[in-house]
């Protein structure tokens, strides 16, 4: 996809999900599961939840989870699997650009959301605005070092530490680094390199200085 092409919408993603029995792995992202286990469960938003692997993990860990995605096909799978595993998800079919929750979240997850470079800051800003004071933003995505092996073909959409630091202003940045680890695919675990960032809205709800580049 070139920089001038529109962002894929519901029809594109419904077609992708409809072509396969399962598009993404069932297990949650390992970096998210490690981080979330240290948090007191509250309200969580999985932004771009897909088939619900991260949302279901959080729900099983005691979180009240909203799973947001443009694809009703993906969310139908997420809801069905959640019911099979004895947990509930609030599944919301919507574009992240349009979604406005009635209440803030204690955790917002952006896992493998790779918007166009010019929309990266907008996505993070919207996520930041949905956080309750003291809430956390968790971001993980494909490292630029993986270009051509994983993730979008457009290198500008992939992540680097510098690219994330540039857009995480207004939050206390707790972690931002490239990580090599055993990631999940539909075929099983494999070595991957991702960028992970964890940031926190100050408990007083006041903005923090933009991180230095």
Can you walk through the features of this model?
- This protein has 213 residues and is α/β, with parallel strands linked by helices.
- 27% of the residues lie in helices and 29% in strands.
- Strands 3-2-1-4-5-7-6 form a seven-stranded mixed sheet, with helices on both faces.
- Helix 5 links the parallel strand 4 and strand 5.
- The two termini are 28 Å apart.
Mean pLDDT: 89
Q: Any low-confidence stretches, pLDDT <50, length ≥5?
A: 205-213
CATH topology value: Rossmann fold
| 3D shape | globular
The total of helices stands at 6
Radius of gyration: 16 Å
**Helicity level, as a percent range?**
25-40%
The CATH superfamily title: Vaccinia Virus protein VP39
Order of helices and strands: HHEHEHEEHEHEE
Strand order of the largest sheet: 3-2-1-4-5-7-6
Task: Sum up the structure in keywords.
single chain; 213 residues; alpha/beta; Rossmann fold; seven-stranded mixed β-sheet; 27% helix; globular
Helices and strands in order, then pairings?
Layout lengths: L9 H9 L11 H7 L6 E5 L5 H8 L3 E6 L2 H13 L4 E5 L11 E7 L5 H13 L1 E12 L18 H7 L4 E14 L2 E13 L13
Parallel strand pairs: 1-2, 1-4, 2-3, 4-5
Antiparallel strand pairs: 5-7, 6-7
